[in-house]
Amino acid sequence: MQEISQHIAERLRALRRVEAWSLDRTARETGVSKAMLGQIERGESSPTVATLWKIASGFRVPFSSLFEPEAVVPDAGLAGAAPQAAPASEGDAAGMAAVPLFPFDPVLGFELLVGTLAAGAVSESAPHAPGVVEHLVVVEGELEVRVDGVWRRLAAGEGLRFAADRPHAYRNPGEGPARFHDVIHYPRGAGGFPGVAADGESGEASAGSTSASGR
Fold it and tell me: For the residues of 61-88, what is the DSSP string, one character each?
């Protein structure tokens, strides 16, 4: 975990250098306090998943880029899944863990995360960058997702697609950890996401959410 924290610290410093943002400016753009940003850069704090999302959204970069040195472009259409950066049982202070399985693909404009939420835990998420859409499928346990103030319960094998550029939350009502896969789709031609072609398309679920069941 120390190695991950160090990489995030270096990545945050690099993003600030590229944008020439002070800590004050970064705090304004991300909604993360200047004190917390400083602690992250010095490796003195392990940020929650919610905080990392605020940083990624503020800089208009994919979430997985905070873990990976650079975006991954599949070679000849074939790419293996990346090893998980941390055991699925580990989580942040809110009980949430999210690590890249397939890092951001600049051609297709998506990344695939593996999420784990501890029993009884609730993880609140601020709006992601405009147009970002999540496609979430529960793999193990049960998960409740709040979108537009409405909680939806998902069992293993069920999924939900929703616009993630608005406040949302995850809650585990079960007695064991909930594990899920989350495909994050980034809009084309908006937000300045690296490598995403500008063809005028945006997240197709921006107007609402859609449930799906694999059973």
Answer: --GGGGTSSS----BTTB-PPPPPSS-T
pLDDT digits (tens, 9 = 90+) for 65-108: 998 654 445 554 555 555 544 433 346 778 999 999 999 999 99
Using alpha carbons, list the distances in angstroms from residue 100 to 26, 35, 65, 93, 115: 24, 27, 9, 19, 9
Residues with Cβ within 8 Å of residue 27, at least 6 apart in sequence:
33, 34, 37
Segment (H or E) for 3: helix 2-19
Please list, in sequence order, all residues whose beta carbon lies within 8 angstroms of the beta carbon of residue 60, skipping any fewer than 6 positions away. 129, 191, 192, 193
14 contacts: CB under 8 Å, gap ≥ 6: none
Chain-centroid distance of CA 108 in Å reads: 17
Is 62 in contact with 184 (CB distance < 8 Å)? yes
- Token readout for 134 is 């999540």
What single letter denotes the amino acid at residue 71? A
Strand-pair category, 209-213 with 150-155: unpaired
For residue 199, give the DSSP letter: S
Triad 79, 87, 163: Cα angle to 5°: 65
Sign of CA dihedral 8, 104, 170, 33: positive
